Amino acid sequence: MARNEEAESPDPRRWRALAVCLVSGFMTLLDVSIVNVALPSIRTGLHASVSDLQWVLSGYALMFGLFLVPAGRLGDARGRRAVFLAGLGLFTLASALAGLSPGPGWLACARLLQGAAGGLLNPQVAGFIQQLFRGAERGRAFGLLGATIGLSTAVGPLLGGAIIGVAGPTEGWRWVFYVNVPIGLVLLPVARRLLPAPHTQTAGTSAAVSRNFDPVGVLLLGTGVLLVLLPLIHERDWHGSAKWLLVAAALVVLGAFVGWERRYVRTGRQPVVDLTLFRVRSYALGVAIGLVYFAGFTAIFFIFTLYVQSGLGYSALLAGLAVTPFALGMAAGSALGGRAVIRLGRPMVTAGLAVVTLGLIATDVAVRLDPGHSVGLATMLPLLVAGLGSGFVIAPNQALSLQEVPVQGGGSAAGVLQTGQRIGSAIGIAVIDFLAGRRTAGARA
């Protein structure tokens, strides 16, 4: 397999195709964080309730996480370009519908559609990197993907604050969604021209693809992920402990999923998730690292942004500027890490984790020494260092995790990896939100 891959001549359009993938992926990942700063504008413009705002936020993340693995499998089976174009077109349409929303219910539905579209599109990006690049070039491509992930996470609040500042607090939130429309319309024909078409399939191969899609596996996995994410996303607004029974139910459903997938393989068909991948040490370790790291990585942004906005009175734009050093460091670290990962391997991820730890300790020290309004300046250098370390973690970990995965299964394998990251993010935010709530309650008592 490896010799055949190396023997193939590289696609001369691969770097332009990657640029299309990264811009599209950036647009969908940006919508995870950019809406946070638009919530006050949405509440004013649509007279939305707290529950409405919760669904605007969580609906996107929920559908995004649900669609990642099935979409990855669909791209592997039916052709990545077709699924990518469908996701991009649907995301563009959903963005326009969100901007046109006459009420909060319409907006929540548009966000569900946006999330589904983002989940369709994103696994194809990693699948295309697997398909188009080999060796050191693949590491560099994953480095650019890691930089895209980091920038989209950190730039969202900054860009959202800037758009609302220009367009106004009442209608500015609409332009947070409208900005995706011209970008999507430009990308669609370019993506169709540059992204590689699937290899020609025989009638027998097409029939096998249809037979192997595994709808029961898709349903079980989607239900299990849904049951895990719901109580985490709604940790604050679903009161009481009964919501955690959904996690227990999720374990039962996911156990049934594993049993079904093993049975499905024994019938000679291709499951939605190839469980034998978890016997590959690099992949299993990479999924675990991604889940745990994103639990901390996303939660840090959440609590720091909350601190400077609610605690220190920063505007949305200033809060975005405060986390920009982390984004810049992560972009640089991802680019550098992607270039060196094939040569240095897993020790680079270990070193990155150490650098992140040092940067965050220094950030904590800076906040304690200068807890006033100038905390954004005091934390610039520590956050830059932490971001640099983060770049050495995310992109290299993704490259190493997928290094031994066959190209034809790259989309579904990437979908599982990204689903772990989404679940990790939800866990981290839920835990931080819970601890912050208990601390606030204790202080009031």
Entry summary:
By secondary structure, the chain is mostly helical. The chain has helices spanning 2-7, 14-33, 39-46, 50-78, 80-99, 104-132, 135-167, 172-178, 180-194, 203-211, 215-233, 245-266, 281-311, 316-344, 346-369, 375-378, 380-401, 410-444.
What does this structure look like?
- With 445 residues, the chain is mainly alpha-helical.
- It contains 18 helices and no strands.
List keywords for this structure.
globular; 445 residues; mainly alpha; Growth Hormone, Chain: A; 81% helix; 18 helices; 0% strand
Oligomer: single chain
CATH level-two architecture of the largest domain? Up-down Bundle
- Radius of gyration using CA atoms only: 21 Å
In percent, how helical is the residue content? over 70%
Tally of distinct domains: 2
Classify the fold: give the CATH topology of the largest domain: Growth Hormone, Chain: A
What integer is the average pLDDT?
A: 82
Structural class: mainly alpha
What name goes with the CATH superfamily of the largest domain?
Answer: MFS general substrate transporter like domains
The CATH top-level class label of the largest domain? Mainly Alpha
Unreliable residue stretches = 1-7, 200-210
Q: What's the tally of helices?
A: 18
Using the alpha-carbon principal axes, give the shape: globular
Q: Ends: how far apart?
A: 64 Å
- Strand portion, in percent? under 5%
What's the total count of β strands?
A: 0
Main β-sheet description: none
How would you spell out the order of helices and strands?
Answer: HHHHHHHHHHHHHHHHHH
